[in-house]
Please model this.
Amino acid sequence: MIDISKPVTTSDALIYYADHILDEIDNLAKVEYNKKGRKYRFVNNAFQRIRQEDKHLVICPEQLDLKLSFYSAFSILINIGDILNTHPQFCCTILGLAQELEKNHWYEEENSSIIHFRNAKHDPRVVQHEADAFVKQFPITQQHIDWGINLMVCSKLNFLHTDHHIGTKLEGVYMRQYVEQYFGEEALTSLDVLVALKSCVHWGNIKGILYKLKVPNIDISPQLMENFANFPDPDQELCSSVYDRFPSGTSKYHLLYKSLDMLGLDFKYSHLITIDPKEFQFEWLYNLCHDIEFDPIKYHLRAKTKQLCSNPVNLSELAMKHNSRMNKLFDLIALIINIFQNTGGDYLLQNSKIPKLDQKLIDRYSKLYQRFVDLAKQIEAYEMKNWTQDDIIARLQQDDTSSVNKSLHSIVSQLK
Model:
């Protein structure tokens, strides 16, 4: 502390001010707040959710012989119902995975799920006797480790697509597939298995595993890349599934994109549905969705907060930019699937993003609505006469003499 009652040198003042900045940074690192019962802490330059501290994986990679990750994982499992007795092979999988993460530095940065022994509030070795007895009865094998790695990869796929590793229930096609394959159908509905998975899947490093899934443009450091050099290559089916869905935060664009594809390319009378492309603009959507398919990670809801890439997109700004055009396309979809028969889009009516066909929607597009209704009646009349699809299209295309309108089929086909 400097005595400010006396003159001080410039160097002393700089040292004092530097110490002050370091103290402020240290205080900032301890900032916490609660929201809706969840605790958040300022970690890695961002506020991150802090999970129950008894779910942290305690590690000490400098002294692997201490087996801290093993005892830490066991201390978590021993407090989850009767899971050690009901699902011992599952528990061996979690225990083997924990040790593998610690040994190979495949764990997440120290934050809400991982804690170094020097910062831990308890010593996980208090369960050493019980843990050693358990693995003596149920030895951990390489198969258990392989299973754990697969489940970890599946959880990061879930995160990529939904922003959740597991969800309120066991979610994800591949997660459920592997849990049932490894541990039986009963494990799919086991609350204890769910609770255990919710803890352990957060231990793995998101960036490293997404990198191994070949997600392009992950902002990964050379050190992390080196750490994951010996991480087993995920099954090709899992790598391909990266592109099965759009990343978390972009589901409305995916819904719009796939709905228009289906109506424009698969609905047999899409050649007859004509619209003004200036009123209903498609190009922005297809350009955007092609970019999401090409570089999904920058559109992820957590791309910025988790520093997943170097050029994250601001999804709020993106939505504001396209909101008006997007809503008009949703309106168009609602008109088509409510007016025409057998579009293949009836299931879309259950989606809250698709507006209801109410009087407000009808009034907003009164001329288009009436034109679609008349067209649907004409199609039905010709079908009643047993005309073929090609004959109906050929006959009714002659009636549309507009020089402005284009068919839904031609618009979508051109943009694909």
Notes: DSSP finds 18 helices and seven strands in the chain.
